[in-house]
Task: structure prediction
Amino acid sequence: MQNIKAYLEEHKDEFIKELIELLKIPSVSADSAYSQDVLNTAEAMAVALQKAGCDLVEICDTKGYPIVYGEKIIDTELPTVLVYGHYDVQPPDPVDLWDSPPFEPVIRNTELHPDGAIYARGASDDKGQVYMHVKALQYMITQNSLPLNVKFMIEGEEEVGSESLSDFVKEHKEKLQNDIILISDTGMIANDIPSITTGLRGLSYVEVEVTGPNRDLHSGLYGGAIANPINILAKMIASLHDENNHITIPGFYDKVDELSLKEREAMGKAPFNIEAYKDTLDIESVYGEDGYTTNERNSIRPSLDVNGIWGGYTGEGAKTVIPSKAYAKISMRLVPHQDWHEITDLFKNHFESIAPKGVRIKVTPHHGGESYVTPINSIGYLAASKAYETTFGKTPIPKRNGGSIPIVPLFEKELGSKSILMGFGLDSNAIHSPNEHFGVWNFLKGIETIPYFYKYYAELSSGKQKD
Ligand code: BES
Ligand code: MN
Ligand code: MN
Result:
């Protein structure tokens, strides 16, 4: 595989151009105004898989957005890698804060990305990372070096909970049969500190509605005499953490997997520069649960955050009004062995129980999913580790991540396979934020590294059982 570098040198401009075309299509799954664009992106993905050399490419209809499926089966006796990713993206809002329009990709050089970074919604999460796999496959097929079977499954609803995909997986277990699932939808510590994601947090996402009087009221005539839903909501939300930043919902921590000091110490060895962390966020101090480090707070500990809060008058000038309703969207990130349905129920019961008389509470669960942890002694992990060693010249560090990909634990449950999370993004890529970007170097490094995963996985698994 000596010539992957030469191959990339020859084709990189073309690959970047193709990715830019894909990033121009605004595949925002959360907003129905973009539904035709999401469908067009599925088409474009299918074309890309065809071009890469898949024998079979299908756009599989679901009750939501389609799943793009592709395969290249070279020998049914050989192991099969299933590549998963998503072609949908987060809404670009707030659009004003982008330095260039979110769906007009541009390449800019920065200190962190001297070779340039592609700025566009989805550049890193996840179109850019999916595209690395498409191009790595194309390379292996062109070179006749694909050592095992490949299936691709790229969905269009990851950012809204992967509902159709979970049905699809349950209904097509045979079709999706595989030995290992390969995903690039996470990040690594730094370009010179490769890491493999070994854990994802679970999620419970809820919306709450607080209703007071049956109509908006004059805040002079009624102020002080009735419960203002916004005041009450703010108070209720504030009470969800205590003075140690512990979550106060009864039973919330009951099943949390408490790691041993030894495990925590090992994790603490991963390089982390707290000053740089604060600098990039323009904050004077970090904040969180007492007794835990920043890296622990955002990976092995659960959290609860308000994602949005609204109600009353927010227009120009002043309007003296007590609103009838107040709302908030709240996410809870979960860790092993918290059950997301159980946590959702605990939240609902608690939130209803702390409401004072004079308001009514409605809690609506959205989506959620379980957490995930991978072993680091499996063939899949070792193959990934060797692949990074080959192309980065360093052994990657195993690292648990705070984000969620709820479909990953479902894959394990339904298909019986582990997922290997080889992400090539950086935390600074601003995924879900304005100015999302993906380093050109990272994009190319991904394409360079992925074929080695196949090579080592094929070597390590010959004659061995499935992980
Ligand atoms: N790719 C992210 C998840 C991620 C990013 C994990 C970086 C680890 C590191 C994924 O697209 C995502 O945004 N997931 C959502 C959950 C989903 C149910 C909306 C999340 O984590 O908020
Ligand atoms: Mn993603
Ligand atoms: Mn995302």
